[in-house]
Amino acid sequence: MPLNAEFLPAAEKASRRLLIMLHGLGDSSEGYRWLPDGLDLPWLNYLLVNGPDPYYGGFSWFDYPDNMTPGILRSRQLLFSLLDEWQAKGFPASEITLGGFSQGSLLTADVGLRHPRRLAGLLCISGWIFEMKTLLQELSPAARQQRMLVSHGKFDPLIPCDKVREQARELQAAGLNVQWREFPKDHSIYGSEEIGVIRKFIAEGYGCESGPQ
Length: 213
Prior knowledge:
The protein has six helices and nine strands. With 213 residues, the protein is α/β, with parallel strands linked by helices. It has one domain (5-205): Alpha/Beta hydrolase fold, catalytic domain (Rossmann fold), CATH 3.40.50. It has a seven-stranded mixed beta sheet, sandwiched between helices. Strand 4 and strand 5 form a beta hairpin.
């Protein structure tokens, strides 16, 4: 079955720029309806996607922490299909930013670095890389053209910052365009400071270096 998603149109009606946002474990699209106001990018459309599995009132993308592989492989294919669907609707890959938090961050890297076309950016918040060795072997030809922001909390109790920092360095060593940012946070988004970094990263992907216009 296709993924359930909520489309929030840009204030600028003709815009084809799109942020596809993937939530974390137990969350849903409802948890990210603040994004248009928070980012304040009037030319950006939003697609807030629910994971395929019900999970305590929200959704998940894969089983955690055990037996993750089957769910990740399934969600990977569902997200590839979702990207194809929205490209067919007139949103080119180069105009799509793929982003996610925690489980959604893992899938952003997993899908984005395998995708055959360059996206506007990959936004990975408080997540980690699944099977790094396999991912590096399966990078698409477009992977080294992808822009990628990896942000994490120094005090994250669920996913240790040291582990993710080392993974970011490994991606950089493989020649990928990865920006690494640490914040004094736990497993969360660090308010206006991190939102500002995210806004700048997204805007630069569309040639809008000054952010909101």
